[in-house]
Design brief:
Blueprint: H1 2-35, E1 39-44, E2 49-52, H2 54-60, H3 64-67, H4 87-96, E3 103-109, E4 115-126, E5 132-141, H5 143-161, E6 166-169, E7 175-178, H6 180-186, H7 190-193, H8 207-218, E8 226-231, E9 237-248, E10 254-263, H9 265-311, H10 316-343, H11 347-350, H12 353-368, E11 371-375, H13 385-404, E12 410-418, E13 421-428, H14 444-455, E14 459-464, E15 470-476
Parallel strand pairs: 11-12
Antiparallel strand pairs: 1-2, 1-5, 3-4, 4-5, 6-7, 6-10, 8-9, 9-10, 12-13, 13-15, 14-15
Helix pairs in contact: 9-10, 10-12, 12-13, 13-14
Length: 481
């Protein structure tokens, strides 16, 4: 009997120790759960809330007394979310088939009405017979991430359906993404462009631009708009306004190139038509000056000289005045002829570009009063009159800028041929050209020169000369008529 009593006491002591350890363990568990920086909730199969940790209470705005015993629906979730999903059914299914909802994301609502998104991990709690009695739910706030996902999804939809071509390429030029706008403008379907290199739609004379732009982007330069050209699937040459952007990964490392493009072919056609009309008007004004004003000035010169002869015997002073008028008229005729040749460079059709530029240099000296020389070390033939006229106007504009803005005293026009490319350069000894990227230059004259260069598929370079002043260089490959 004593032995049994002693055994009972030992068992009781062990039970008390085990109970104490269990209580201590439960306390540690409770403290761990309460202090967790995530939502921890236990709910019944039907959705009744059994446990709501402190983090959950603060997050949703309910006290333990207010939330325990309440159903999830009507407190932290509504019957339907913003997308119209049935949350009542989802809550019921989690209780009945938790294995299908080991993880899920759904919209929830705080007590103050703020809508939030929670990523849940759900685990069933079973009794000894294996029957599900509760569901343990652990949640994390993903509202910010969800908002970013929705924003990205919206932006992706906008970009995908934009009428302007938008592409993504790797650094080798292989196309990664091709939107509907690109399909419409270039004629290639998205399937056709997978694995296609972007060089297929870039004219040969423009392929160096992208490499230069990528290098500028890698250096951190801000790339603005670029006027360039592309080739459509049917062979059409398109004028394109291009923006190039660098895409970086999460580590901030450049990983791809994105472009946004706009087809401005029709816009450029209209601009060319305006320039053509302007050219015709210049010719018309030049002819009118030559035929009408020239005749009038010639008449004044002849009449004045005749009058001077008649007055020679009667009044030497009056004769001198008449002779002075005749000389002024002759001087005006010379200046008028110079202006006429600038307005209507007939030498382009008659003697070619070199002859027209030589005349331009001579007229610049006569009319504008600055030293201007033309040099052509070897025969340079530009058979296409459209190209010749554009080069002539570029040289003319460069001279105007040199005198008006650069205050130049000496100007040299050079026409040369190098590696089958025609090179026109206009050098002056005026003010140094400011270091401004081409896309940030605002002068109308510079824009016109850039546009005229683009019309003939050339490249324009404007920079400070080695000894000061400015050098304007236009290089292009001439096309046969």
């Amino acid at each position: 009997m004593k032995e049994q009593t002693e055994n009972l006491r030992n068992v009781t002591a062990k039970l008390q120790t085990a109970e104490h350890d269990l209580q201590a363990s439960e306390e540690k568990y409770r403290q761990l759960v309460e202090r967790a920086d995530c939502i921890i909730m236990r709910r019944s199969i039907d959705g009744e809330i059994i446990f709501f940790n402190e983090f959950a209470q603060k997050f949703f705005g309910y006290s333990e007394r207010e939330i325990i015993g309440k159903n999830i629906v009507g407190t932290i979730v509504r019957e339907t979310d913003s997308y119209g999903r049935n949350l009542v059914k989802m809550t019921r299914d989690i209780g009945r088939q938790p294995e299908l909802y080991a993880t899920n994301e759904n919209e929830s609502i705080c007590r103050n009405g703020r809508r939030v998104w929670i990523a849940w991990a759900n685990k069933p709690i079973c009794d000894k017979e294996g029957n599900i009695t509760e569901i343990l739910c652990v949640g994390h706030d993903i509202t910010k991430r969800k908002g970013m996902e929705n924003e990205l999804r919206l932006l992706a939809t906008i970009v995908k359906n934009s009428p302007d071509p938008t592409t993504v390429q790797d650094f080798d030029g292989n196309i990664i993404s091709w939107n509907h706008g690109a399909e419409h403008v270039y004629g290639y379907s998205e399937e056709e462009t997978l694995g296609m290199n972007v060089s297929k739609i870039i004219p040969e004379h423009k392929r160096g631009e992208i490499d230069a732009l990528i290098e500028s982007l890698k250096k951190g330069d801000n790339i603005g708009f670029l006027d360039t050209q592309r080739i459509a699937k049917d062979g059409r040459m398109l004028d394109i306004l291009l923006i190039v952007m660098m895409i970086k990964d999460e580590a901030g490392k450049a990983c791809a190139i994105a472009t946004s493009e706009r087809d401005i072919t029709e816009h450029r056609r209209l601009e060319r038509e305006v320039l053509s009309i302007t050219e015709r008007e210049r010719k018309s004004i030049g002819r009118e000056m030559h035929d009408s004003m020239g005749q009038a000035l010639t008449g004044i010169a002849v009449k004045s000289k005749g009058l001077a002869l008649k007055l020679a015997d009667k009044s030497s002073e009056d004769s001198k005045e008449a002779l002075a008028i005749s000389k002024l008229a002759n001087k005006a005729i010379v200046q008028m002829r110079g202006l006429t040749r600038m307005l209507y460079p007939v030498d382009i059709e008659a003697g070619g570009l070199a002859s027209a530029l030589n005349t331009l240099a001579a007229n610049t000296e006569k009319v504008l009063g600055v030293k201007c020389r033309f040099n052509c070390s070897m025969p340079v033939s530009v058979d296409n009159h459209v190209e010749s006229r554009q080069l002539f106007r570029i040289a003319e504009e460069a001279i105007t800028n040199a005198i008006k803005h650069g205050k130049a005293k000496t100007i040299h026009i050079n026409l040369d041929l190098k590696d089958e490319r025609c090179i026109l350069s206009v050098k002056n000894d005026g003010r140094d050209f400011p270091k401004t990227p081409p896309r940030k230059r605002k002068g109308l004259g510079l824009k016109i020169m850039e546009y005229r260069t683009g019309m003939i598929g050339g490249s324009l370079d404007i920079r400070k000369g080695d000894k000061g002043g400015t050098i304007v260089t236009c290089a292009f490959t001439s096309k046969k008529r």
